[in-house]
Design brief:
Layout: H1 2-21, H2 28-35, E1 49-55, E2 58-65, E3 67-69, E4 74-75, E5 82-83, H3 89-101, H4 127-131, H5 140-146, H6 158-166, H7 184-197, H8 201-210, E6 219-220, E7 235-238, E8 242-245, E9 258-260, H9 262-274, H10 280-287, E10 305-309, E11 312-321, E12 324-331, E13 336-342, H11 352-360, H12 379-385, E14 387-391, E15 397-403, E16 406-409, E17 412-418, E18 421-424, E19 430-435, E20 440-446, E21 448-455, H13 462-466, E22 470-474, E23 479-486, E24 489-494, E25 498-501, E26 503-506, E27 509-511, E28 517-522, E29 528-534, E30 541-546
Antiparallel strand pairs: 1-2, 1-13, 3-4, 5-9, 6-9, 7-8, 10-11, 11-12, 12-13, 14-15, 14-21, 15-16, 16-17, 17-18, 18-19, 19-20, 20-21, 22-23, 22-30, 23-24, 24-25, 26-27, 27-28, 28-29, 29-30
Helix pairs in contact: 3-7, 3-10
């Protein structure tokens, strides 16, 4: 009873606090604080952003900054619609929750039940795995780039996305064992929804979610060139060319393509609380985070994150498409929603967490300024720990060095709390080292856990590099990489990608400025037989070495 009374008092106090700080749209104090967060690069002649804040179903702040269309001198306006990018995923996720509760499908059904000519792998992949980014399927955007088809430049069709999985030789990991963000899964989901309902996914979402919520300005781009009413343009900036219109040659609903404005997103945010569409069972299913196979909470539900920020429960998703960057955050216990979109790429990014802190700071736990009890580690031990570490998934590396008696990553010190346990200075990121007879292992815990192994740095000479020269063919991508030596560097040459320099990291393992990693594989005789490409979202894409003609 005491807990209930304390919570009631808390809610009353919170409402009074918010009412005091944001009585109305024209609240000058709130506006001044938010204005201070807007990047200095934004002014009346540049692209910018729109910001909306809703509390208890009322829009307490709504404002546009910068230009929506530079050619016509149109300013950004909260009434205009903007591409929400991956924030779109939650609409399709909610649709699947509705269909599951209605008995039209089961989230634990295998994907192949609904897809024709679909591959069966060793482990079953379910609709729930697709919705939670835990499927082990390939990611089409990365695969398209590796084949020389750059997303945003070359047209990417729905069929091409689906064929990426059809051509996949094996799953990248056991479904449910790992969270790896994958937009291709949502293209598949759109196909499944159409099979189940007999309607295109965008049409079904419009009829069953957008219209019932009276989101009358929200539109879904269903094909490249689709006319979107009252939309802003998005821009990047080049020092030589100036402002450049950023456009996309893909329009594949499911992964993205919903255009909306502040007023309509307020209606959507309200549904988190009221479950007006579908009812409470649907809403509960939609917001339930996926538990990984080992029992770890992935913090991702059906198209939206269900997490906490500084002690406050939060539903959140971000999105990026063309040069639009979108953020939606809702704090259910405080009934506070924040929605922002920039049409200026990274130059217009504003962290919505900072906006939340303006209104909710007194109710948040303090920021982590951890003053942990430190121990001194002998220099000899630090020297043993420093060096190159490679992720077990071969798609990340990090360098640890020593400086002034400390282990450092980049410019950040690691604080020792035990001889094999360190934390990033001022952050709750744990580094745990484990020595085995063969190698040093490192586990980094930052919410999720990431495993690394220590690798010996390698500096090959030209004779070493000559072993890798040749042509490498991928059956999966139907493309060839020519490995040449240029300016004493091993280099990938491709007809569309141009030339990509490979920088040696460890034995037979190279990094690139493109953000992917290349590992050369040898047979028992020590001969190079193929190479594998790894990136943040895609693992082990194999190119077989072919004899030179």
């Amino acid at each position: 009873m005491k807990k209930i009374l304390n919570y009631t008092i808390y809610c009353i106090a919170l409402s009074c606090f918010l009412a005091t700080h944001a009585k109305a749209l024209g609240n000058k104090e709130l506006e001044a604080k938010i204005n201070a967060l807007v990047p200095a690069e934004i002014n009346d002649s540049t692209p910018g952003l729109v910001i909306g804040i809703v509390h208890k179903d009322k829009l307490i702040f709504s404002k546009g900054y910068g230009m929506a269309n530079i050619s016509y001198g149109m300013p950004n306006d909260p009434k205009m619609v903007y591409n929400t990018g991956s924030v779109s995923k939650q609409f399709l996720g909610y649709a699947f929750a509705m269909l599951h509760v209605d008995g039209k499908l089961n989230l634990d059904d295998p994907v192949g039940k609904y897809m024709q000519d679909w591959p069966e792998f060793k482990h079953k992949v379910t609709l729930r795995h697709l919705l939670s980014h835990t499927s082990g399927y390939r990611e089409a955007y990365t695969m398209s780039n590796l084949a020389g088809r750059i997303v945003g430049v070359d047209h990417l069709s729905r069929k091409e996305c689906l064929d990426v999985v059809r051509n996949q030789p094996e799953l990248e990991f056991i479904p449910g064992s790992r969270y790896t963000y994958n937009s291709t899964a949502w293209v598949i989901l759109a196909e499944v929804l159409e099979k189940v309902t007999g309607q295109p996914a965008d049409k079904w979402v419009e009829d069953n979610i957008l219209k019932p919520l009276d989101m009358k300005d929200t539109q879904i781009e269903s094909y490249v060139g689709d006319v979107i009413i009252n939309t802003a343009e998005s821009y990047s900036y080049d020092e030589k060319q100036g402002f450049k219109n950023e456009e996309s040659n893909r329009a594949i609903f499911g992964a993205a393509e919903v255009y909306s404005n502040i007023d309509d997103m307020v209606k959507w945010i309200k549904n988190f609380k009221t479950a007006e569409i579908g009812g409470q069972n649907v809403n509960t299913l939609f917001l339930k985070p996926f538990m990984l196979n080992d029992g770890t909470n992935s913090d991702y539900a059906l198209g939206i994150k269900n997490e906490s920020y500084r002690g406050l429960k939060r539903y959140r998703h971000t999105g990026g498409h063309e040069a639009f960057l979108t953020q939606l955050s809702y704090y259910p216990e405080q009934d506070l929603g924040i929605y922002t979109v920039t049409n200026y790429g990274g130059k217009g990014w504003i962290d919505t967490s900072k906006i939340a802190e303006i209104l909710l700071e007194k109710h948040m736990i303090p920021s982590i300024k951890t003053a942990r009890e430190q121990i001194d580690v002998k220099q000899e031990k630090l020297e043993q720990l420093k060096g190159l570490y490679v992720a077990e998934t071969l798609n990340r590396t990090l360098d640890l060095n020593t400086e002034e008696g400390k282990l450092v990553q980049g410019e950040t010190k690691l604080i020792a709390t035990a001889s094999n346990t360190f934390y990033l200075d001022g952050r709750d990121v744990k580094y745990q080292f484990k020595n085995t007879p063969n190698q040093t292992q490192l586990t980094i815990t930052d919410g999720a856990k990431y495993s690394y192994f220590k690798a010996e740095k390698w500096t090959p000479n030209e004779v070493d590099l000559n072993i890798f020269k040749g042509n490498y063919w991928s059956d999966e991508l139907e493309t060839v990489y020519h490995l040449i030596i240029k300016d004493k560097n091993l280099t990938i040459k491709h007809r569309w990608l141009g030339e990509i320099a490979l920088m040696p990291a460890a034995k037979d393992f190279f990094t690139t400025e493109w953000g992917f990693y290349v590992k050369f594989n040898r047979n028992k005789k020590g001969e190079v037989i193929n190479l594998s490409v790894y990136s943040g979202r895609t693992l082990n894409v194999i190119f077989q070495k072919k004899p030179l003609q």
